[in-house]
Amino acid sequence: MSTAPRSQAVRKDWGHDESGCTFLHVDMDAFFASLETARHPELVGRPVIVGGVEGVRGVVSTANYEARRYGVHSAQAMATARRLCPQGAFLPVDHHYYSHVSHEIFTQIVAKITDQIEQVSVDEAYINVAPALREWKSPRAIGEWIRQQVYQRFHITCSVGIGSNMLMAKLASTNAKPNGLLLVPQARNAEFVRLLDLRAINGVGPALEKRLSSWAVTTVAQIQELSEAQVVRMVGSRQIGHWLWLACQGESERVLVTHALEKSIGQEMTFPEDTNDLAKIRALLRNCCDHIARRLREKQLVARTVSVKIRFADLTYATRSQTSRVPIQNSVQMMQIADQLLPAALAAWKRGRGVADAGASREEVSADAGRSAVSPTFVRLAGVSVSGLTEQSTTLYQPELDFDDTQENNETGLKKNNELEKALDAVRAKYGSSAVRRGATSWRDE
């Protein structure tokens, strides 16, 4: 979902010259909320807000267009959203379902066009359709077909931008929303971006905007009148100045990167109420591990490093990490490490109360670092992430020398757990992500 500023001045037909326009940007409209409405037809026409924990705490992940009319937007506190739109339908995030649909859209629809795809988030991707034009003839025809297929198969809408480079395709899709298609002819790139706010250029944030405003530069049109050297001097960086000057001419040197491996996968959740109940904290971490393990299996990846994040009631936070000797793909492996890291993360608050980042530096923690009991302070949020990701098919597994088939971290134990979790995946795919979960004994709780 794009949150960039949009301009009514550019929401028009810019012509039909498709020459050189080989990049498409496909962006789902209010993706999470749209999927919830699609599977709950009774919500059609109502404001739908997705985020938080059972709609109580946390932040808004997605709000549909009906909710946005009340001032609700993504990254907003759920409490604020409830105050602005008390009549809205507030739903929890179902990452597994959204990821599954995303995978279907980009592999079963978009990939039918070409393999030149760069998926940049769960709901958007860039496509280079140049190799497909011999068959399809027209990039506009491709964009319309994708929109039609997404709607017919999943009952949601998407917007498509078409341009001569990735920047223009992205700007076009943003201004085509919702449920539209916009083509910007290559010859009109500079004319198109001239009408946009500076913040509409992806990559221009508050800091850069403030720096430019100190030079009395507040619009794309003003930058178009400057030389590249002048822009470099204003922003204080040759690289950023070069990029910004080009972008304000409607040009970009960015190249499409296909099949880029994710750097990390994570999940964090906010408690309905701050808690110091260690059992509740561990239960939430288990849910996070379960979610991450499913995503690893879906993407056929394994991980090496597990990190635990704790945010305390005073909004300070701590993170602790540990790298495994064996590749990780199932939730039991992940939770064993999370259990070892949790006491050290909780103890960080006692050592650094009032510090804005009570343990941000990542630490390697030995296998028995967290075995001593810790009495936790009140915790607001907890989460797990994994990194050091590699393709499962190319990762060698070195079994432990002290082989014991009663332990979960050996080859036999790993195979059993992987088989169990794949079976759970099949049940969830058919009946929903909350249909089944591992019982406490399957985590080897004491």
Mean pLDDT: 83
Secondary-structure-based class equals: alpha+beta
Largest sheet geometry: 5 strands, mixed
CATH topology (fold) name of the largest domain: Alpha-Beta Plaits
Strand order of the largest sheet: 5-6-1-7-8
Reading the helices and strands in chain order gives: EHEEHHEHEEHHEHEHHHHHEHEEHEEH
Number of strands: 13
In percent terms, what proportion of residues is strand? Answer: 15-25%
Helix content: 25-40%
Total helices: the number is 15
Please state the second-level CATH architecture of the largest domain.
2-Layer Sandwich
Radius of gyration, taken over Cα atoms and rounded to an integer in Å? 24 Å
- In the CATH scheme, the class of the largest domain would be Alpha Beta
Active site: 124
Site (Substrate discrimination): 32
Keywords: Cytoplasm, DNA damage, DNA repair, DNA replication, DNA-binding, DNA-directed DNA polymerase, Magnesium, Metal-binding, Mutator protein, Nucleotidyltransferase, Transferase
GO molecular function: damaged DNA binding; DNA-directed DNA polymerase activity; magnesium ion binding
Task: Characterise the protein shown here.
It is a single chain. It is built from 15 helices and 13 strands. It has 446 residues and is α+β, with helices and mostly antiparallel strands. The protein folds into 3 domains: 1-195, Alpha-Beta Plaits, CATH 3.30.70; 197-247; 264-437, Dna Ligase, domain 1 (2-Layer Sandwich), CATH 3.30.1490. The strands form 3 sheets. Strands 5-6-1-7-8 form a 5-stranded mixed β-sheet. Strands 9, 10, 11, 12 and 13 form a 5-stranded antiparallel β-sheet that branches. Strands 3-2-4 form a 3-stranded mixed β-sheet, sandwiched between helices. Residues 353-375, 399-409 and 440-446 have low confidence and may be disordered.
